[in-house]
Specification:
With 416 residues, this protein is mainly alpha-helical. It has 20 helices and three strands. The termini are far apart. This is Eukaryotic translation initiation factor 3 subunit M.
């Protein structure tokens, strides 16, 4: 397109002038004879007949004319990105002036716009992000239309594997859900759409976190909550980097699934060890395959958790290799491998001594923090307090002895 073909889109001027500007943008690449024929219906609709109110005072006529324009918006147009952005910004300005965002008319026209923008060619993705972001920000913060716009953004990002472009974070999502005047069902649906988007793109960690938030948003005893809870349990067990099952176990909907066969397995991973896992597997021979759970992977995870629990009980102490091997049901020669694995998983910190065949526990993660863990922590704090009291007593004695010696020392004098 040559420079002379460029059409600026502006928000100044009368309603008629702005409509003319929008129409000119839509037909800018058509032959001259088509332009003339296309413009006539708009010119006729905006003529002021005898006894009619001026266009600026006639809201119904303005809505009719604007609806005519929207019906002709079939894509993003042939302008450059600046012109496309200006065109849609002017569309938004008229849309929300004529149709307040909380009215059915606004949603109807918005749905059509979102479909038009979303279906534009993928090579126009950068400008699609921008004009949809402008639309999102043009809506009032409490608008029920905002989730529709963001879902369109999300779908585009997923289709192009570009979800990181949105810089989505849970704090923003939580704020939006508090602000948006939508039903609890719509809020849950929005959360699920985010969890599904991350899952589709293979970002399992983000998907899992949004899944937990989604479950919290559901009535605990509902069918949706129960199905989501079972899926979340299976996902948490399946993912190799999830070791903290406490947040999942504390969800009311998950507790409501206590009679499900996977719930008892979740309890094993929350509190027990390899022996309990083996017993559970023998009692439920077909369940792992049913939920696409790998037995070898689960055995690896439960051993790491068991070692972390053993370490938590012996922080500041030396654990013999033989004790670790006995607990994990492995040969002593494999102990160092398991210690390295549990350290890599971030569950434990310590120092291995090959000469002494011991592991000195510096720090270890508790799988859950209930009465037993509080009692262990209390004993540890009392021990530290006792140790510190001893150190302070030694320091006090040293100071007293130092002061006594100083008082007996001769005083030096300076001669004239």
């Amino acid at each position: 397109m040559s420079a002379t073909d460029s059409v600026s889109v502006f928000a100044e001027g009368t309603f008629e002038e702005q409509i003319q500007e929008l129409v000119n943008y839509i037909i800018r690449t058509r032959p001259e004879e088509e332009r003339i024929a296309f413009i006539h219906p708009f010119q006729d609709a905006m003529k002021i007949g005898e006894g009619q109110k001026p266009m600026e005072e006639d809201q119904e006529r303005k809505k009719k004319v604007f609806a005519m324009v929207l019906s002709e918006v079939k894509g993003l147009g042939d302008g450059n990105e600046k012109e496309i952005e200006g065109f849609f910004n002017l569309i938004y300005a008229h849309l929300f002036t004529l149709f307040p965002s909380d009215t059915p008319g606004a949603k109807q026209h918005l749905d059509a716009l979102l479909q038009t923008i979303s279906s534009a060619p993928s090579e126009q993705s950068s400008i699609k992000y921008r004009i949809l972001s402008n639309l999102f920000n043009a809506l009032p913060r409490n608008s029920s239309l905002r989730p529709l716009v963001y879902t369109a953004l999300l779908n585009i990002a997923v289709s192009r594997d570009e979800i990181n472009v949105l810089s989505l974070n849970r704090a923003d999502v939580e704020t939006w859900l508090k602000e948006w005047e939508i039903s609890s069902e719509e809020k849950s649906a929005f959360l699920k759409s985010i969890a599904d988007a991350y899952a589709k793109l293979g970002q399992a960690s983000n998907s899992y976190e949004y899944t937990l938030t989604y479950i919290r948003s559901l009535p605990p005893t509902s069918d949706a909550a129960q199905a989501a809870s079972v899926d979340a349990i299976a996902t948490a067990l399946r993912l190799p980097f999830i070791f903290n099952f406490d947040p999942l176990f504390k969800l009311e909907a998950v507790v409501e699934a206590k009679d499900h066969e996977l719930f008892s397995l979740l309890q094993v991973f929350l509190n027990d060890g390899l022996a309990e896992f083996t017993a559970w597997d023998q009692a439920h021979p077909s369940v792992l395959a049913k939920y696409n759970l790998d037995k070898a992977q689960l055995e690896h995870k439960i051993r790491l958790l068991t070692l972390a629990s053993l370490g938590f009980k012996h922080v500041g102490q030396n654990l013999p290799y033989t004790k670790i091997a006995e607990t994990l049901q492995v040969d002593v020669s494999q102990v160092e491998k398991w210690v390295i694995d549990v350290i890599r998983a971030g569950l434990l910190s310590g120092k291995l001594s090959q000469t002494k065949q011991t592991l000195n526990i510096i720090r270890s993660t508790a799988r859950t923090f209930e009465r037993e863990q509080w009692e262990v922590l209390e004993k540890r704090l009392l021990a530290w307090k006792s140790g510190l009291s001893g150190v302070l007593e030694v320091i006090a004695n040293a100071r007293r002895q130092g002061g006594h010696v100083s008082s007996q020392a001769p005083v030096a004098t300076v001669g004239a």
